[in-house]
Design brief:
Length: 80
Amino acid sequence: MGMSNSQRYLVAASLATGAGDYFHCRQVGQTLGYSDAETNAALQSLDDRKLLILLVEGNARLLATGRALASRLETRTTKV
């Protein structure tokens, strides 16, 4: 079973942070080919589930729970 848009966004955000916790929201959405509406929906879903924190000026911080879930999702997709 494939990942949802929010799950794909979470994995891409995790990759975009590198060793840090911060990323630019629109850049991740653009990398995935998401429209602004798709990016906003993914961000809202992930924020509601406390996997990231939305910051000012289009930035966000990936929380430890979000990074852990992204790692599990990434591992799951590479095994399939």
